[in-house]
Structure formats: structure tokens, C-alpha cells
Task: structure prediction
Amino acid sequence: MALIVQKFGGTSVADLNRIRAVADRVAATVRAGNQVAVVVSAMAGVTNQLVAWVRDAHADYDPREYDTVVSTGEQVTTGLLALALNNIGIPARSWLGWQLPIRTDGSHGRARIDDIATDELMKGLSKGEVQVIAGFQGLAPGNRVSTLGRGGSDTSAVAVAAALKAERCDIYTDVDGVYTSDPRIVAKARKLDKITYEEMLEMASLGAKVLHTRSVELAMKYNVRLQVLSSFSNEPGTLCVNEDEIVEQELVSGITYSRDEAKITLVRVADKPGIAAKLFGPLSDAEVNVDMIVQNVSEDGKATDITFTVTKGDLKAALKVVESLKGELGYAALVPDSNVVKVSVIGVGMRSHAGVAKTMFETMAAKGINIQVISTSEIKISVLIAEEYTELALRALHSAYGLDSA
Ligand code: ADP
Ligand code: ASP
Ligand code: MG
Result:
């Protein structure tokens, strides 16, 4: 008998008929002789609506109340799935984050899971009862409900799988696996049978929404066998594996984009020691996460431009910090720009092969797309470009790296 964690995303539980279909899938797994813990998201669109209401209620809302509101979508689907299972003769019960509890830190809106109490879950599972757990939510210090950040139900599922030492964690979604690029934009994207944890982690953190970044981190850390598959078909999905399990490694495995970027340029900052520390120190103190940075060499040895990127959500806070430093930094102008997208190519094959960057730059040049900022790491290259070129850039790069399906 195996213990399996199954997670169903928003589209998979979008209405009662789909919840019934999920119940049938869970029932089949139970009838095959397995113990099953299920993690569910809110119905598609519900969390967006809840977020909109919070913003409408208060422009500068208390994140604890945000969590109280936006966590409710998952409460509905856990209860409904437990009922749908009961209705077809499968014993099941629902669990909210605070009831187990799933303990998190106090970073409301983007909390991290610290610990999951498993006693009650184990008791239920050993009685043959399906445990239906609300994704995305937990219990923060001070007895307040917390949420894990958008898309966080994947992380709930992997954390539950790790805590229960489950045989595997199956993430059921609206695509049948992880593709070489977002199939909604790149029609010729191909499904990958396997992907390394490391590449999946980069893809998730560089914008591929198919898995929440933290879920991949946890899967890597706790050796959870993680699989992405469709809840609408019975096709095999994509399995996350260690590098030595991949026989034929492609040079590039995936191409991602992130629209959640904003660029800030400080024009004519003094070119002298200590300026970067004076700028990025206070930004970090204000909990603004700076991603890409470029500093030009000054022509006259006196002044230079500094450009950096933050998430769109951090733009306001970042500008406030930089404006407060005007006296110290003495820049001539401060130029924000939200009309940007970060496009990245990812592949562990880059470690041993040159020429990946060259292909990227040549492809952008051939399409007349100006590269504003570049950043690289061992297994990825990212460029910042104007947002209107997102589709063009993704499709051109996908072809250039030979990833197009026949
Ligand atoms: P769920 O609600 O099931 O969690 P999500 O919308 O969070 O589903 O994630 C699935 C979506 O991720 C797909 O519909 C797809 O558009 C998008 N996506 C982005 N990049 C990729 C990729 N490389 N492979 C597969 N899907 C991707
Ligand atoms: N319902 C939450 C969201 O829409 C969590 C999730 O779906 O993973 O972000
Ligand atoms: Mg998701």
C-alpha cells in the first residue's frame, strides 16, 4: 500500500461537476489500494475576486486581513470535495490549515511553512479515510490565518507529501505536464517527460507558473517525487528527477517569461566608491528584492547611470527609498518603467556548452528587439525587453534553440 498526495488546481475544481470528476479520480486511486491525501486550490477565478475585494476595501490593507479573506476560496473546495467523495462511498474529511495545524512564519501574504502536524492525518489515513486539505493557507504566530503567496497550493501539497513521507506528490493541473515554454503562448512548445529539479526550480522562479517556486525547493530538499499531470486526461505527465536520471540532456530545456518586472534608472549618479552600498543597502532594509542590476562605465569618470529591476509590486516602495536618498546619491533624474518583461532560457546543458548566450542575442537582434538588461547564472540567461515583444521573443527563441515540435 502506498501513500500518495494528489493536488488539484483551480481549473480542476472550477465547478461541482469538475469536483465530482476529481472525486472519481481520487476514488480510483483509493480503490487501487492506496492511502490518499488530497490538497485543493480554490475554484478558478475565486482567489482573484477575493484579492480584488480586499484592494477595494482598503488601498493600504492589513496583510493579516488580506489572508483572512483570500484563504476562504480553499475552504469551499475542501468541503465540497469531501462531500463528493462521501457521495460515492469513499470516507473523507476536510482540513483547514489552522485545524491541523500547518504552521507558518508571520510573513502574511507570502508565508513559509515551518511545520505540519501529521498525527490526525495519519490516524485518518490508517482508517482508510481520504484527507482533504486546504492548499495555500496556514496558521501564523498570533493565531492568525496566513497564505503562502499566489499559486501556493503546490507548496502546500509538497510540504504535506514531505511531512507524510508520501511515495509521490502528483500535481494535477490544466496542462498535461511541464512544457518547453508556456503552451498558451508558444503553440509549438513540447511536453517534457522529465526535467531536473534544478531546471524546474529556475523555470518556476523565472516565471513558469505551472509550479510554485517554493514547492520545487521543498521537493528538492526533502526528495519528494514530484509529478505534473493533467486532471482532464490520463496521459503521463512530467516527472522531476535528478540530473543523472536524464539520458539525453538538451542544451536548453525551457524558455520562460515574467511580466512581474519593473525597471528603475538613476541617471547620472556619482561614480565613486560606496554608491552601490548606499543605494542597495536601504532597498534591502526596506525588504525590496532587487533582481537585475546594470551600471554603466562613466565616460568622464564623474557620473554614471544605474539601472535595476524589482517586482511590479515593489516598485512603489523602491521609488520611495530611492527618492529619500536623493540628497546622498545626487542623481540627476529617476526613471521608472513598468513596460518590461524578463525572458529567460534555462538548461543544465549550458554548464558544458558555449554559445547559448550568442544564440539568444542574435535572435533578439534578428527580430529588432532591444535588450535593456542582461543577467546570467550557471544554467540560465535572462534578458529584459519591452513588454510588447514577449510573444515574438518567446517564439523566436523557441525555434532558435531547436525546441519546436514537429
Ligand atoms: P493550477 O490552477 O492547476 O495551479 P496554474 O494556472 O497555476 O494551474 O498553472 C498551469 C498553467 O501554467 C498552464 O495553464 C500554463 O499556461 C502555465 N504555464 C506557464 N509555463 C508553463 C510551462 N513551461 N509548462 C506548462 N505550463 C506552463
Ligand atoms: N488559490 C490560490 C491562488 O489562486 C492558490 C493556488 O491556486 O495555488 O493563488
Ligand atoms: Mg498553480
Remarks:
- DSSP finds 13 helices and 20 strands in the chain.
- Residues 255 and 345 are 5 Å apart (CA to CA).
- Residues 9, 151, 154 surround magnesium ion (ligand 3) (CB under 6 Å).
- The first strand starts at residue 3 and ends at 8.
